[in-house]
Amino acid sequence: MKTNAIIWWSLAIFYGIVTVVYVLWFYLDNPEGFQWVGGPHSEGLWVGILALGLTTVLSIFIGFFVTRYHNRSGGLLPEDTLDAEIDEGDPNIGHYSPWSWWPIVLAAGMALVFIGLGTGFWLSFYGLPVALIGLVGFVFEHYRGTFQH
């Protein structure tokens, strides 16, 4: 876990340096200075600064989370030790129904929604009810029928 934290903090530093280099390079390449609105390269500047800046910020978020998790978990995880057994790193993460058809219905509905957003908005109107029915069925499948809790 400590290695993961070091990797994420290193990536955050790298992306921060790349962001600064990007801005400086653009400034040096355009002697007239920054033209934030209406300039010949203003769209590329905004997209690049936003993409690189958000990559830096999100790497900092993940690095912070992994560092905090490492400190709260007491240091070593079973994956970090060489003599750990497989069962030590196998937590109970929940219940999965291998016989369920609801994930397929949900995926089909969401596929229709996103295809509709990309091609024709009218298709999303057909996909949204299918996705909602799939979501409700997937969430509440263990509340009725043979497999209820």
Total number of beta strands: 0
Structural class per helix/strand content? Answer: mainly alpha
Poorly predicted runs are none
Rg result: 24 Å
Shape: flat
What's the end-to-end separation, in Å? 36 Å
Q: Which range does the strand content fall in?
A: under 5%
Outline:
The protein is mainly alpha-helical. The protein folds into 2 domains: about 1-80; about 100-140. It has 4 helices and no strands.
Helices and strands in order, then pairings?
Layout: H1 2-29, H2 42-72, H3 102-118, H4 121-139
What does this protein structure show overall?
The model has no long low-confidence stretch (mean pLDDT 83). The chain folds into 2 domains: 80 residues; 38 residues. With 149 residues, the chain is an all-alpha fold.
Keywords:
flat; 4 helices; mainly alpha
